[in-house]
What we know:
Elements: H1 19-30, E1 69-70, H2 82-87, H3 100-104, E2 114-119, E3 125-128, H4 129-132, E4 139-147, E5 151-161, H5 162-168, E6 177-182, E7 202-206, H6 207-210, E8 216-221, E9 224-225, E10 235-237, E11 250-256, H7 263-267, E12 291-294, E13 302-304, H8 312-315
Parallel strand pairs: 1-4, 2-11, 5-12
Antiparallel strand pairs: 2-3, 4-5, 5-8, 6-7, 6-11, 8-9, 8-10, 12-13
Amino acid sequence: MFIPKQRPWQSPEADVTPKGLYLNRRKIIASGGALALTGLSACEAQSDQDSAASIPTGSRPASGELAHRTTGYQVADPLTPYPAVTGYNNFYEFGIGKDDPARYASALTTAPWSIEVEGHAARTGRFALEDVVDFSNLEERIYRLRCVEAWSMVIPWIGVSLASVLTSFEPTSDARYVQFVTDLDRDEMRGTRFPVLNWPYVEGLRMDEAMNELAFLAVGLYGEVLPNQNGAPIRLVVPWKYGYKSIKSIVKIRFVSGEPETSWNRSAPHEYGFYSNVNPNRAHPRWSQRSERVIGGNVFARRDTEMFNGYSEQVAHMYAGMDLIENH
Ligand code: MTE
């Protein structure tokens, strides 16, 4: 997608970190660069081939590189090192420890994968992932991910806009919200044997939020197929909201007329609202949201949290007139 207008968080295409450079950075890190992050599991060094593999239209590689184009979505901070992005995760279906997903998510079978589409849309039913996402037309977007736990990462995602996928199902005017559901397989997802959350994990967006240009469906990161611990084979990325809205390993999309249930809201409504927009002015009942820990850097590295995680220009208009403390 060509973005004609320069935004504060974008840079010209030429300024975007070249893939070779960040893969090289990854190589440096993998070969002994210190990660000042406790509890990180070491990740294996990946292939360092710089040339994007050419993938035939419609096919989905099981692993390795994903052909993609680079658009101008950029963050003015360094990328979080690959071992941190793939070694420090939240994916409670595999355990509540930050290194549990990297340790156990490989048990999840991600191919074949299908997504069931239900509700207010002209095209509903079960679709193979390859028929939902055009793997010959992927783009890279660098977004900041801000977790409600007050840490953040800068991640180069590969995928497609959520709007392009939702539009293909031809939602009707009754579709005012969209709900997403994560896979639930008690054999493969060891964490779901414990009632940490009311499984399956569910999330939702208002339809205008879902159609916003920033909402993204990721099938890869750092130029490669999405690792299981990051939500393979397909996960949502909603960069102006707390990370828990970015639901992983999606198996169902429901077009609904009323506000859908969401996992964390259902679990602790006074702590987690439906909207969950990043907001430094609303403290979590148990901690401040004014600043965040920068993962992958110096242990003391912090930055001030920005309203809507720095994406106000693209999203603030959707909440005009709303009390964002009340509607947290
Ligand atoms: N999706 C599912 N299905 N299960 C989860 O536990 N955790 C969320 C979100 N998506 C979660 C999930 C939280 S709290 C965050 S911060 C992000 O995933 C973390 O994404 P990452 O591990 O790729 O950084």
